[in-house]
Amino acid sequence: MKKFSFDLLNVDAGSQARRGRVHTRRGIIETPVFMPVGTQGTVKAMYPETLKEIGAQIILANTYHLFLRPGHDLVRRLGGLHAFMNWDRPILTDSGGFQVFSLGALRKIDEEGVRFQSHLDGSSHVLTPESSIAIQEALGADIIMAFDECIPYPSSREYVAASTDRSSRWARRCRQARQVDDGAALYGIVQGGMHRDLRARSVADLLEIGFEGYAVGGLSVGESADLMYEIMEWTMPLLPENQPRYVMGVGTPENLVEGVRRGVDMFDCVMPTRNARNGVMFTSFGKVSIKQARYLDDARPLDPECSCYVCRNYSRAYLRHLYQSNEILSSMLNTHHNLHYYQQLMSSMRNAIEAGAFERFRKDFYEKRQIDGGN
């Protein structure tokens, strides 16, 4: 069985941007990397084979949703999530924490864990650090996440401090719950809200426990982009240089570029897939809302600089027609393009870091966004 490890290959001279390589039991992940989100064991509107074609190295699946439906025991009996969904590359599962905490009045937190009502049928369940780990192990993920509380924003300092300390205690229980050395990696999650000292305290707690990688949670919850970047700047230097660094639930192409600049290795977000289903496309010159009337008879490809299947074969007019007609193919083509764009963005950043030219890349990235390519 291949042992999980991380190689730091390059650090850009003009920034903290890192080029690395994560070794997992199901293959290598070149970093920095963006992970498409396959919440319920599928990346919406995408075949697994198509994900591979566009360069997806790893996908994210959701513990909460798969626990409720179809159930982790069923998935285990059918060979694990990889066999169940026909995906032979690495999978990361989140702990379910974000989803149960987003249920609001339908959940109750105590030291043991979270009691909640299913959003599907109102049935009652309990998720604890131990059960979260057991579910993720049953699913067979290659990277599993510690159970934590995603702190609401804004929250009082008193609440943030108490929640962060509880997440640290839960993280220790998650570490202790990992009884089997099956080759999967366990990541701890840094909390602390928008407070620098609480973020540092959270990091110190997690380092004392010890994990194979470290994630930063509690971002992209309503704070400004500047504050998000500031927290990345506080936190990344505190994390081990020789282990992967993951910022959860982030975000826009600009967020990815700025996160990489500050030393982040791994990202995930529903933004490219969710926006695609709503007719919003990401391109080299910025976002395009394909539903707009100005694309009614536009024969140009969506993004002339893009080499994806969609941009090579379909016009903006056709993509608009599909969206306006509520055709299933609209979601498929739009999602294909958006995820291809995100994968190519990450590939370009990896190349720039290797060449020692990340800051040049970043400058060009923003200069292109000054052009209104939609006209």
Q: If you had to describe this structure to a student in words, what would you say it looks like?
A:
An eight-stranded parallel sheet has the order 4-14-13-12-11-10-6-5. A three-stranded antiparallel sheet has the order 1-2-3. 41% of the residues lie in helices and 18% in strands. With 375 residues, it is α/β, with parallel strands linked by helices. It is globular. The relative contact order is 0.13.
Brief sketch in words of this structure:
With 375 residues, the protein is an alpha/beta fold. It has helices at residues 48-53, 63-68, 72-77, 81-85, 97-101, 129-139, 157-177, 196-209, 225-235, 253-261, 271-277, 309-313, 316-324, 328-354, 358-368, and strands at residues 5-11, 18-24, 27-31, 33-35, 59-62, 91-94, 107-109, 114-117, 124-127, 143-145, 185-190, 213-216, 245-247, 266-268, 280-283, 286-289.
Write the layout of secondary structure elements.
Layout: E1 5-11, E2 18-24, E3 27-31, E4 33-35, H1 48-53, E5 59-62, H2 63-68, H3 72-77, H4 81-85, E6 91-94, H5 97-101, E7 107-109, E8 114-117, E9 124-127, H6 129-139, E10 143-145, H7 157-177, E11 185-190, H8 196-209, E12 213-216, H9 225-235, E13 245-247, H10 253-261, E14 266-268, H11 271-277, E15 280-283, E16 286-289, H12 309-313, H13 316-324, H14 328-354, H15 358-368
Parallel strand pairs: 4-14, 5-6, 6-10, 10-11, 11-12, 12-13, 13-14
Antiparallel strand pairs: 1-2, 2-3, 7-8, 8-9, 15-16
